[in-house]
Amino acid sequence: MSHSVELIVNGYVRLNDRAALEKLLAHRRELLRQLSSVTGIDPRQTVAQVSQEIAIIEAGLATIAPE
After folding, report:
1. What is the distance between the alpha carbons of residues 53 and 65, in angstroms, rounded to a whole number?
2. Cα(7)–Cα(5) distance, rounded to whole angstroms?
């Protein structure tokens, strides 16, 4: 999935769509928060994946000038 997120982030960066990237980042952070409260399964692999996606999104945001 991270490759897909990279492609999405690259598209938003090319469009200079900071709002879309911020919304995507907020969604992934909320997902990470929810995963921390999961019981009954081991979410470590998913947490690692979401954390990697957050890093990709943050890197994309860093390339766009703040509004």
Report:
1. 20
2. 5
pTM of the model as a whole: 0.90
Burial of residue 41 (number of CB atoms within 10 Å: 0-12, 13-18, 19+): exposed
* Cβ-defined contacts of 46-51 (< 8 Å, 24+): 49/1, 49/2
- pLDDT-flagged residues of the chain (< 50): none
Query: DSSP state, 18?
Result: H
DSSP 27: H
pLDDT in tens, 17-31: 999 999 999 999 999
